[in-house]
Amino acid sequence: MIRVHLLGRFTIFTPAGEVVLPTAKVRLLSAYLFWQQGRWMRRALLRDMLWGEVDEERAAGNLRTALYLLRRAFDAGGVPERLLQIRRDTVRVPDGPGCRVDVREFEKKVWAGLHKDVREVEPLMAAASLYRGDFLEDLDAEWCLPERRRLADLHLAVLRTLVDRLAALGLYEGAVSYASRWLAVDPLDEAAHQALMRLYHAVGQPALVVEQYEQCRQMLEKELGISPGDATVRLLQELAPTADKGAAACPRKKVPGRGRRGLRSPSAGQSPDSFFTVKNFS
């Protein structure tokens, strides 16, 4: 079985261990072919993508060399010869049960989980475990960026949904774990801070509710020069009515020319206030 990781650091594993790819261009070529697994890719496209800055003849020679080095690395690492199919004008990594690419498994589990009953969490937990990092995070190529953003957003949707479903099931410790991961990915998202405040309230930890609010306040002040929104302040007053409201009472600052980067609502068309309700955690 060949296992390919496109989430996080790009790696190829065989029963013999990790396959060593000799150059940055060979790594990019290999990553692209596994990302496009099953599709015949035209050599002209690969030449332009990897060596667009040189003339066509030189780029064609570079591609031939890269494919030779890739084949040799595959052979040395124990990758079956059939896994790299080369024709005169096209190249591909074929589909097959002997090669598992984590991105495909991740998306399969995500969509299976999102379309299941709201009490179903196992497929989404499996998807979250597959997300080891951003798509090809160690490779620097323009073609990676749109897919990197798309998969990162999908990962956030998984975390938010898991928090929602686990909380509704009364599995608060698990919900806290995924909410913490959500916050680590997007520390400026007030909805993540609000989710943790509600969860700490649900498990009877008012001090942690206040601590989470203070973390939110400090983060927004440091990074954006603003205070928490009215919804977050109201939530603190609701969940920890005896807390010191000195910081919470400060008016929200307006900073000209500065947006609130990374702030996402729990889902399209849903406000942070409606994402969690106190009754869900009681």
TrEMBL record:
Compositionally biased region (Basic residues): 251-263
- Could you tell me which residues belong to the region Disordered? 243-282
InterPro entries from the UniProt entry: AfsR-DnrI-RedD_regulator, BTAD, Sig_transdc_resp-reg_C-effctor, TPR-like_helical_dom_sf, WH-like_DNA-bd_sf
Where in the numbering of this chain does the Bacterial transcriptional activator domain appear?
A: 101-240
Q: State one Pfam family annotation.
A: BTAD
In the record, biological process GO terms are: regulation of DNA-templated transcription
Bias (Polar residues) ranges = 267-282
Record's superkingdom? Bacteria
Molecular function (Gene Ontology), one example: DNA binding
Name the chain's protein: Bacterial transcriptional activator domain-containing protein
| Native source organism of the sequence | Ammonifex degensii
Lineage, highest ranks first: Bacteria, Bacillati, Bacillota, Clostridia, Thermoanaerobacterales
